[in-house]
TrEMBL record:
Family membership noted in the UniProt record: Belongs to the GMC oxidoreductase family.
Organism: Periconia macrospinosa
Signal peptide limits: none
Domain of life: Eukaryota
InterPro entries per UniProt: FAD/NAD-bd_sf, GMC_OxRdtase, GMC_OxRdtase_N
Protein name in UniProt: GMC oxidoreductase
Residues in Glucose-methanol-choline oxidoreductase N-terminal domain copies: 11-135
PANTHER family linked to this entry: GLUCOSE-METHANOL-CHOLINE GMC OXIDOREDUCTASE, GLUCOSE-METHANOL-CHOLINE OXIDOREDUCTASE N-TERMINAL DOMAIN-CONTAINING PROTEIN-RELATED
GO terms of molecular function: flavin adenine dinucleotide binding; oxidoreductase activity, acting on CH-OH group of donors
Family matches, as Pfam families: GMC_oxred_N
Length: 155
C-alpha cells in the first residue's frame, strides 16, 4: 500500500473508495497488465487489527476511527435523537467492520433484478460465474473431518 506522495502521476483508472465494490473493480481492471489502476481509500489497511481480524470484536470497530459513523437526521420517533450509520473507513469499507458476516443472495433475488431493470441477461444463470468468485471453501484435513464428524454441502 502506497501513500499519495509515493504514487505515480497518471493512471488509466482511479477508483475512489477501497470498499468491497471498489476493490473488486480494481482487481478486475488490473487483470489487464496494460492497465494501471489506483485505489484511493481514506482509511488504512487494518487486516492485522484485532477489531477487524477477530469477528467477535467487531463491535469495538463501530463508532471508532474505523467507522465514518454518519449521523442520521433527527428521528421523530426517537425524540429527535440522531442515530449513527456505520460506514467502514478502512480498506475493505463496511465489509471490514461487519463481523465477517455475509447474507448470501438467492437465485430468485438476482432474477428479480433482471425484471426490475428490464435488462435481459442480468439474471442468476448469466451472473452466476461472477457471483461465485466471491466465495471460497477451504476443506478441513481428513483427520479433522473424521475426528469432529464435519460435513458440508458441496458448492
Amino acid at each position: 500500500m502506497s501513500t499519495v506522495a509515493s504514487m505515480e502521476t497518471a493512471y488509466d483508472y482511479v477508483i475512489i473508495g477501497g470498499g468491497t465494490a471498489g476493490l473488486v473493480l480494481a482487481n478486475r481492471l488490473s487483470e489487464n497488465s496494460d492497465v494501471t489502476v489506483a485505489v484511493l481509500e481514506a482509511g488504512g489497511n487494518t487486516t492485522a487489527d484485532p477489531k477487524i481480524a477477530v469477528p467477535a470484536l467487531f463491535t469495538s470497530a463501530l463508532a471508532s476511527e474505523l467507522d465514518w459513523n454518519i449521523p442520521s437526521v433527527p428521528q421523530a420517533g426517537l425524540d429527535g435523537r440522531r442515530i449513527g450509520h456505520n460506514q467502514g473507513k478502512a480498506l475493505g469499507g463496511s465489509s471490514a467492520i461487519n463481523a465477517q458476516a455475509l447474507i448470501p443472495f438467492s437465485a430468485t433475488d438476482i432474477d428479480t433484478w433482471e425484471s426490475l431493470v428490464g435488462d435481459k441477461g442480468w439474471n442468476f444463470a448469466t451472473l452466476s460465474p461472477y457471483l461465485k468468485k466471491a466465495f471460497g471453501l477451504t476443506l478441513p484435513e481428513a483427520a479433522a473431518v473424521t475426528q469432529f464428524n464435519v460435513s458440508w454441502a458441496a458448492p
